Every structure is written in structure tokens, then in C-alpha cells.
Amino acid sequence: MFADKDISKFNNIETPFYYYDTDLLQKTLHTCADAAAPYQFHIHYALKANFNPVLLNQVKEIGFGADCVSAGEVRRAVEVGFDNKKIVFAGVGKSDKEINEALDLDIFCFNVESIQELEVLNELAVKKGKTAQVAIRINPNVDAHTHHNITTGLDENKFGINSWDLPECADTLKASPNLKFIGIHFHIGSQITNLDVYKNLCVRVNEFAAWFEDKGFKLQVLNVGGGLGIDYYNPDHQIPDFGSYFKIFNEFLTIKPGQEVHFELGRALVGQSASLITRVLYIKNGKKKNFVVLDAGMTELMRPALYQAYHKIENLSRISNLRSQTPIKYDIVGPICESTDCFGKEVEQPESFRGDIFAIRSAGAYGEVMASKYNLRDAIRSVYSYEI
Ligand SMILES: *Cc1c(COP(=O)(O)O)cnc(C)c1O
User: How far is the CA of 191 from the CAs of 144, 227, 236, in angstroms?
Assistant: First the structure.
């Protein structure tokens, strides 16, 4: 991903910053759109993965819809120019204020996560004299085989409506004049790399769809969520296999004539398109450990501290030394006053020095959006490939 010209230009830019490869992003978005087109699948981009304005604009231009998990995201999607009829709103805890705001913006669909939420949504829609389109988010109890902190579709997770509550849910839908029930929704977790998981999901979706149709409901939408993973170990192997992913749904989902299949992809669309660029402040060689202390930490990229996430780390200033030297094992840490502020332990690198530029790769998803002001750090900046 990094040409020598980039690296020499990085030297003159104040660190740390997120570096966005907008060409790669464009290629990834197109690859996904082209893979979905033969099946007429609908893609909604999950804003929570990254709402950087330049990136959002590129996603909107491709024609994708938006998957939002707060009123703030719904508002942002509308401001950026996403079609409000392509905006869906999920979330286990939507406040009355958020629901009212989304009703005013006439979004496509509320993905509702509890029976009580259905009741509240109906009440608020009645007050406004509006009809809200709803999909029921069902917890299908399918194991996503991913990190336990990013699994969402098991009985023990807080998300969605459990299967045993569906009869009551169906009654509530029937008794809610200002709700229009359009479909069922699922999202079972993130960073899913085993595509068999999606076959299991399809089987469950078919069962739930049949259950609702038995009860006399017509389903316009099957929304299967997102979660497709990226290869954090090989960031230069950049574009996820959207072809195989969509093929599974085409093969294993029972799709009725006129029925739409919706997806909500976040990470897979944007994850590889950014790196966190940071400079070495200090090298500390200890008896037991060698430390590289960077000028970026968990305040800029929280994933390693939050869920022990792996990111490939490269010393861009010494790439040419990589093969010629015996590597040294370093703990690569940030400046924040927390022991979990560590990007990697015992990571092999060429001998590194103060001032070296490091890249923390695959940081386009759940990176910039999770940046915090902890320790009263300066806001993280962004640099785009077309600028330098
Ligand atoms: C986070 C989220 C997504 C996107 O997940 P990725 O793993 O980034 O693809 C999709 N749908 C819902 C409801 C989400 O909360």
C-alpha cells in the first residue's frame, strides 16, 4: 500500500494522523457494488464503522444506503446526502427523542429490538400522525465464531428479540395501527471470517420468514445485517471476497418473488482503506522488554485496548532493513496512562529509532470514530491520499 513517495511525504506531516487511501476505498466500494448487482441486493453502509466526511461522501456517491445506530448518525446521513428512503435505524436503546427525530426525517425503516420499543414507536408515530415502517430484529442464536466482545446473535446477547417472544411480537404488530411491518432483520456479529456462519444464518432466516408468513404477514425485506471480516494479518491483500459472500446468500436464502435482500456492511467496506500514521517518540530498552513508545495511543485507535484486536504494525522508515537485519522484539505502546495502551506485544521489527514513522494498518473501521479526548489529547487529524 505504501509507496516510497508516501513515506517520504509522511516525514513532513505532523503526527499522529489517519491516512486514507481514497483510491483503494473507491475500488473496494465498486467491487462490492458490482458483486451485489447481479442479485439486486441492497447495501446499507454502517456509519458507525467510520463517519469521516470524505469517506462518507464516497460511499454515498456509490449509491449505497445508510445503516444508523443513533439519531446523530441518521442526521449525519441525511446531511451528507444519503437518500432518506435508504436509511435504516437499529439500536437496542433508541430514546424517545431519537425516535421522534427519525420519524420527522421519514427514514425507510426502524429495526426494532424489543416489544416495548414497538409500543413506544407506535405511540410516538400516533402523536405525529405518521406511519413508521418497521423490521423486527431477531436474535437467531447463531454463533458468529468471532471475538466474544463482538458477537451479537446469541441468546445471552442484549440485541434483538428472542424467538420465544415472537408470538407476543406478532400480536403487538397487529395491534399497532401506525406501524407498517415490512420485514425481519438480523446482525449476528462483526469480523466474521468463516463464511459457513452465514450459511447457518440463512437457514435461520428462512425458518423465521416461514413463521411470519404462516401467521399471515408478508415480508418485503429480509435484512441480514453485516459483519463480514477483513484480513488484519495481510493488509495488502486488501479487498474482501464480496463475490463469495453474496453468493452464499443467493444460494441459501429462500427469496420470494418481489422480496428484497438488504445488507449492512461496515468494516468490510472501509477497514483496509486507512492506516494510523505515528512517530516513535522514544525507545526504551529494558532487561525483560524493549519498548517502542509512539505518539499515538488508545485515544487514537482503541481497538487493541478494547478487545485485544490485532493490527499489523510496520516501521515505514526501516522497511528496507526488514530482510537484512535480525528483527528485534518490541512492545509497541502509546503515551496514554493505561497499561492496556499497547498496540502489540513482542512484535518483530527492524531496529527502530526515535523519529521513525510507523503505520498501524487496517485502521479504517472502528478507528477514527472511537477516538477520545482522554488525557485531554488533541483531536486526531486525517490526511487523504489525493492531498499528498
Ligand atoms: C455494527 C453494525 C453493522 C456493521 O457491522 P460490520 O461488522 O462493521 O459490518 C451492521 N448492522 C448493525 C445493526 C450494526 O450494529
Answer: 9, 5, 17
How remote is the CA of residue 152 from the centroid of ligand 1, in Å? 10
> Which among 44, 152, 187 is the best mutation to test ligand 1's pocket, defined by most ligand atoms within 8 Å of the CB?
187
Ligand 1 binding pocket mutation candidate from 43, 47, 48 (most atoms within 8 A of CB): 48
Residue 384's alpha-carbon distances to 5, 19, 228, 274, 332, in angstroms, are 14, 6, 25, 9, 25
Distance of CA 345 to the CA centre of its chain: 25
Judge if the beta carbon of residue 74 lies within 6 A of ligand 1.
no
Q: What is the 271 CA–ligand 1 centroid distance (Å)?
A: 13
- Which domains, and CATH codes, for the chain? 4-17+272-387 (2.40.37.10), 22-271 (3.20.20.10)
* Mean pLDDT value of segment 151-164: 83
What digits encode the pLDDT tens for the residues 321-360?
767 778 999 999 999 999 999 999 999 999 999 999 999 9
46 lines ligand 1 (CB under 6 A): yes
Ligand 1 centre from 320 Cα, in Å?
A: 38
* Phi, psi at 194, each rounded to 5°: -95, 105
Q: What distance in angstroms lies between residue 209's CA and the mean position of ligand 1's atoms?
A: 21
Question: How far is 114 from 168, CA to CA, in rounded Å?
Answer: 11
Q: From the CA of 263, how far away is ligand 1's center (Å)?
A: 9
Is the CB of 44 inside a 6 Å radius of any atom of ligand 1? no
Question: 140 with 186: CB under 8 angstroms?
Answer: yes
List the grid coordinates of 310: 490485532
* pLDDT for residue 1 is more than 70: no
pLDDT band per the 50, 70, 90 thresholds, residue 288: confident
Q: Please check the confidence at residue 149 and state whether its pLDDT lies above 80.
A: no
Q: Report pLDDT for 143.
A: 83
Given a cut of 90, is residue 155 above it in pLDDT?
no
Asked if pLDDT for residue 387 goes beyond 80, the answer is yes
